[in-house]
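To assess whether ligand presence alters the predicted conformation, the chain was also submitted together with calcium ion. Input:
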Amino acid sequence: MTLPLVIDTDPGIDDALALILAARAPEARLLAVSVSYGNTTLDRATRNARLALARANCQVPVFPGSDRPLARPLVTAKETHGSEGFGDLDTPPPEPVAPTGTSILDALRAAGEPVTLVTLGPLTNLALALRNDPAFLRSRVVRHVAMGGNIAAAGNSGGLAEFNVWCDPEAAAEVLAAEMGTELVGLDVTRRLVITAPGVERLANHPDPEAQWFGRLLSFYVRFHHHFEGLPGAVINDPLAVALALRPRWGRAETLRLTVNCAQGAGRGETTVGLPSDPPVRVYRDVDIAPVHALLLQHLFGAWLTVSDFRP
Ligand code: RIB
Ligand code: CA
């Protein structure tokens, strides 16, 4: 049995790993991709999505979506993913893209069947899909897995928040309020998926050009994590959302009633356990990381790295 997937993404270094993983894993059937601003601008993210899919020889349709949050100014993560959103990789100039509010709806139509929707960036595209055609969206999304949020883990944006939710808290609040059965793969579990600095250096210095591609993609990310968090490696969030979409039993989730903080300043984007009236959300609180390492070695790094290149 293969899992039909549509992925909404803001590539982004870890998004690229997630897209290639989804394109290569035989248990997944990636049918379409929609793109969001977030780690970089929409035009760069659209180019980067196409580059990542080409790396996996995957010819699925790509649909550019939102170029900014619902109601806030655009802020991208140049310091985390680089000026082009792809670390140290050389990229061609981005083609101009026309932003749309229907990218996820277009991707679902292209998919042609009910799917699992995996969102790896801000939730703006999904909030707009819910606004524009909720009936069609709900008829085609049988399950929603989102990389986003955090409960107990340290935040990565504005102090306690997680970047995807921090980018567009209003969109995140609208998506959770829709009670689609969203499963949050947040920093509480993604901080367990760390590729080490020596492993990335081995990729960058390997004679195989494919290894060098991953090395140049990830080296910038390792420098960011070392500088801002003192981490001897990089947290690769998005591949874990794909892994748990494929193998939910590798994680342990609980249902929490969550509030998204839509403040302008301090607290922006924090996801906290709220009131009984808040929407119920499945939140992954723990993960068996060993099978995830094995999956990433099998489909991404196994020709050059071993399990010792991940933090245990
Ligand atoms: O907080 C991490 C998330 O924000 C990841 O999806 C990363 O790619 C960025 O989008
Ligand atoms: Ca992302």
